[in-house]
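Handout, section 3.2

Students often ask what a structure token actually looks like in practice. Rather than define it abstractly, here is a full record for Cytochrome P450. The first block is the sequence as you would receive it.
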Amino acid sequence: MVEVMHDTLGKFADLYGSYWYYIGTAAVGLLVLVLFYRKLTGPKLPPGPFAWPVIGNIPHMGTQPHISLLNLSKKYGPLMYMQLGSVPTIVIQSPEMAKEVLRTQDHIWASRPLTIVGEVFFYDRQDLLFAPIGPLFKLLRRTCVNSLFTPKRIQQFQAVRKEMITLFIQKLLQECKGGKPATVDNMLKETNFNNISKILYGKSYYGLKTKNVDGSLNAREFHEIPELWAKVAGGVIVGDYLPFLRPLDIGGCEALLKTLREEFNVFLTSVIEEHRQRVPAPGTEDFVDVLLTLPADDQGHRLTEIQIKSFLQDLTLGGIDTTTTGIFWPLLQLMRHPEHRKKVQEELDVVVGRDRLVDESDLPRLPYLRATIKEAFRVPTAVPFLAPRESLEACKIAGYDIPKGTRLIVNAYAIHNSPEFWLEPEKFDPDRFLDPKNPVKHDEYKYIPFGGGRRMCPGMDSATLFVESFLARLLHCCDLSLPEGMIPQDVDSGASFGVTLAPTTSLRVIATPRLTLKVYKDAGIAL
Ligand code: HEM
Ligand SMILES: *[C@@H]1O[C@H](CO)[C@@H](O)[C@H](O)[C@H]1NC(C)=O
Ligand SMILES: CC(=O)N[C@H]1CO[C@H](CO)[C@@H](O)[C@@H]1O
């Protein structure tokens, strides 16, 4: 024992005596000074949780990142800095901060980062959703405004909407014959997919098998492509955050994205071929017709075939899941809150009566129905995170320095569900949107279900009309109730994170007719 101690002390003395000791001390001192100096003069980053080496703050995201981040904001505030693997990120969780990045600094934050989905699935970002700021982005946005989502074009699809909703109601009422419950979420998925594809491609494609490049039939039906895509795109692709692991393709996401792109490509190639062979009557063009016949812009630019395909992928994937989710959550809330359902139906009876179907022209006179849908876009928020953005230059937010190339997450869910900005946020209360003394103003950025700034959802008007029209007809034509033994509080409002929030359990309802029988007969609804 004494021997060992002596030995150690001896070594210590040796070290103490050597000039290496002095050099070592000097080096450590210098390092401390440099770090301190950088702290003083380097970028002053926003606060945020401790970042682990290599993985950074990835563990803080958890499986429900929209809620984890909302929880973290209580400690670190509405502007938070995180390191997601190798990606420097800021997280925005208040209306004031949202206004800063979506309006005041929109020119800095309107670009999108390069991700594996953008690179692999969208042919190196030749679509709108993933396009960086540049000429293609401008051309595609202009196409949305001038050719695809014009009021006239939206009006043109009124017949499709009407047909689809009527068919849905017929199917629902038939399934519920004899008081049997129907599973609404599954029914919505089918119907929506088909009818959106009708607007885009002029045909329903449900049940259609995709083909392989050699023409043989693939096992996957076309509607599975959007579902699988949403799973991959809504999850974490490891290679995006830890690029050195990308070659391993953990989970096989990249390989799956490639396969899905190929299957989608074969499908779109045949759709485009079919459309090239025909000349649609004016006023009956679908989106493919419109995109194929776009005139060149001032500089003579036209969309290439790859760009048309990627854009159609966007519109298909951006439109189906969001619209289904947008119809599902208001319906679920109305099943949880029979008192509001009753009020919506009373409004319909007063404005429309029971002797004819609701028409889209009735919607402006149905404020309570519309407020109900608005409130259901708040809680829960169908699209919890706005699509990711990236800064084009270094900037300052709230006095903090944000370097160029920083990723931006706007947690719309948090903004919609924080008690700082909404009174009793967990309460479902459509009247929030009807209070003339305290209106929810667009320029306050406390209500952003469709995003904001130059990246705001181009499908907003079209989607809102669709959802309103759907729910107006459904609630007008059908009385809804829960399966026996279930009370409203039993309706599970649990949601799991993804590009859109998905319900964790199925919604089962029983529908019965509530209008005069002649109305169903005239509308061609077989009971
Ligand atoms: C209830 C339905 C919908 C909701 C809640 C919704 C929500 C959103 C949100 C939050 C964004 C991101 C905005 C941002 O980054 O600030 C977005 C972008 C987008 N949406 Fe929608 N959307 C819906 C329906 C649709 C439909 C029906 C279409 C087209 C058929 C569509 C096409 C797009 C496209 C192409 C973008 C990307 C725009 C860009 O990056 O410039 N959306 N949507
Ligand atoms: C968020 O905080 C609440 C209450 O403090 C807690 O019950 C919940 O588990 C937290 N959720 C997540 C995902 O961190
Ligand atoms: C217009 C249109 O395509 N309607 C379809 C909507 O979805 C239902 C349910 O799948 C189909 O039966 C309709 O043909």
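Discussion prompt for tutorial groups: Residues 305-336 form the longest helix (32 residues). How would you have guessed this from the sequence alone?
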